[in-house]
């Protein structure tokens, strides 16, 4: 048993609570569905470590070190890790059940002591958690308010509202002082620190709380406001720029900044456009993709976002199964010699687009290449690309809507493709294609061992829903090994990423909590 104390600060319309654990809460394994003993627990063979040459993305001055700071690993959104993941040497699997229902830990970051700082979604609200990296035991938690989409889903019995909501803290980042920075469902930007008490327990504290409701419509559905008459515009994501301003975006196309030194808030609106993805930052600007166009922003002297350039893309005629909305599903990737990459939403075949991101690039020279990927009528992604050097890796999510899409042994058409930009920048070429079936994961590349990591759902004629961590050779596209993590919908990652930890562990957020895979 463990001892815990609950400390709540009463804020407008919500109680924000820190749970203090006198001793770590013991991890409870996520239950497996029947059939896990009837399918192969391990396929392939251990891989040899083969580090990749090249330079890592620039280290952002206001983020935790690359690989530790957020869902997409760094400010550039590269989805790469500077340390090795498991090589497949008799890998062991552990898990933690976060809640009786739900509990998915989407973004995992690592503080300077190697502890996990993560946000886990439950039906009662999101929880910021501090986890011990080996046992996955909870050291402390901070409870965020419930999202309006959860209230709507429960009252209407339409749980698709939850699965297509990217707001409320799922996209957060860890800053250079180990603080979690996020936007909660009240349209507040919080900066949360964690520290150890004299008795050895841990706690979260709110260092800063910036209220965006003067800039963002906030008449949202709650249990005390089931039929709002106004507008609710959830904040999707936050990221700092190179000067330390905190940028934020909303679902309905608002783009804003907070100056942490003065608390000055500025914003603009992209009329008729929607932003459901996170965004990336470099010294030369902030790259944001809406459901209509790719943007490069900078801040004016007073912090107001200004458009440096805008590039439309083919958004197709409708959202596809496997995408959140009718538009690009990717966070922009900043890579190579001043490139930015996204995907479009073209009807027949999705395209990978590479553009030059300089503010002074002529419009007719902006596009470097447009490469169609995957099969006709079965091609989309709602996850970040992976970029390293001049290479891009893209995953096909066509057919995945929510956990019911892959029940009873079903899977998706799948596919992964690597594309390289030519050294002279004259175009792009496909390098290899893999048949890996990763329904919805944000994959990762370890540059320390040369392996790509996917979370795979293999079809089963027996109706068994087995989920695997799969390693693929970055150079060749060859599948190296797959390790079963569990069976049943509780092991579905439902859009959460693979995250590689500093100790070589691969973590995957799943529907009921978090899974860890490491070499023995």
Describe this structure in words.
The protein is 2% helix and 41% strand. It has a six-stranded antiparallel β-sheet, with no helix packed on it. With 520 residues, the chain is mainly β. The chain starts with a strand and ends with a strand.
Key descriptive features of the protein:
36 strands, six-stranded antiparallel β-sheet, mainly beta, 2 helices, six-stranded mixed β-sheet
How do you describe this structure in short?
The protein is mainly beta. The protein has helices at 148-156, 160-163; strands at 4-11, 14-25, 42-44, 80-81, 92-97, 102-110, 116-122, 125-131, 138-143, 173-174, 180-183, 188-196, 202-211, 235-240, 246-250, 254-258, 265-269, 280-282, 285-289, 293-299, 305-312, 333-335, 339-343, 351-356, 367-372, 386-388, 391-395, 416-421, 428-434, 444-446, 451-457, 466-473, 479-487, 498-500, 506-510, 513-518.
């Amino acid at each position: 048993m463990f001892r815990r104390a609950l400390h709540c600060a009463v804020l407008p319309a919500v109680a924000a609570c820190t749970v203090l654990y006198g001793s770590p809460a013991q991890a409870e394994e996520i239950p497996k569905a029947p059939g896990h003993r009837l399918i192969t627990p391990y396929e392939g063979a251990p891989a040899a470590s083969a580090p990749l040459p090249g330079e890592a993305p620039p280290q952002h001055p206001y983020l935790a070190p690359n690989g530790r700071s957020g869902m997409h690993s760094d400010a550039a959104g590269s989805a790469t890790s500077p340390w090795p993941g498991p090589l497949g040497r008799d890998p062991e699997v552990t898990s933690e059940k976060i809640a009786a229902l739900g509990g998915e830990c989407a973004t995992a970051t690592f503080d300077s002591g190697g502890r996990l700082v993560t946000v886990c979604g439950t039906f009662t609200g999101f929880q910021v958690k501090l986890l011990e990296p080996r046992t996955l035991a909870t050291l402390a938690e901070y409870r965020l308010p419930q999202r309006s989409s959860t209230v709507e889903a429960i009252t209407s019995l339409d749980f698709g509202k939850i699965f297509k909501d990217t707001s409320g803290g799922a996209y957060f980042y860890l800053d250079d002082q180990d603080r979690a920075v996020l936007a909660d469902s009240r349209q507040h930007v919080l900066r949360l620190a964690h520290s150890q008490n004299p008795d050895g327990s841990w706690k979260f504290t709110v260092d800063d709380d910036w209220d965006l409701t003067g800039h963002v419509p906030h008449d949202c559905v709650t249990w005390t406001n089931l039929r709002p008459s106004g507008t609710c515009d959830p904040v999707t994501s936050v990221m700092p720029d190179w000067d330390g301003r905190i940028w934020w975006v909303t679902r309905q196309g608002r783009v804003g900044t907070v100056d942490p030194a003065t608390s000055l808030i500025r914003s603009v609106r992209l009329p008729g456009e929607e932003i459901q993805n996170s965004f990336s930052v470099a010294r030369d600007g902030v790259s944001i993709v809406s459901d209509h166009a790719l943007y490069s922003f900078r801040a004016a002297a007073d912090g107001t976002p200004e458009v440096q350039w805008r590039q439309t893309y083919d958004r197709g005629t409708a959202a596809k199964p496997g995408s959140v909305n009718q538009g690009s599903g990717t966070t922009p990737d900043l890579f190579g010699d001043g490139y930015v990459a996204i995907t479009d939403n073209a009807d027949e075949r999705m395209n990978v687009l590479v553009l030059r991101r300089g503010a002074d690039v002529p419009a007719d020279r902006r596009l470097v290449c447009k490469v169609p990927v995957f099969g006709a009528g079965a091609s989309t992604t709602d996850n970040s690309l992976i970029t390293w050097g001049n290479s891009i890796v893209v995953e096909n999510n066509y057919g995945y809507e929510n956990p019911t899409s892959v029940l009873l042994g079903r899977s998706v058409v799948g596919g992964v493709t690597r594309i390289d930009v030519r050294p002279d920048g004259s175009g792009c070429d496909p390098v290899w294609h893999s048949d890996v079936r990763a329904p919805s994961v944000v994959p990762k590349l370890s540059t320390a061992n040369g392996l790509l990591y996917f979370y795979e759902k293999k079809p089963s004629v027996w109706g068994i829903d087995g989920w695997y961590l799969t390693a693929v050779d970055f150079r060749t596209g060859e599948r190296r090994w797959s390790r079963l993590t569990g069976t049943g919908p509780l092991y579905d990652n439902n859009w959460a990423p693979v995250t590689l930890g500093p100790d070589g562990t691969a973590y995957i957020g799943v529907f009921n909590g978090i899974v860890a895979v490491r070499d023995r």
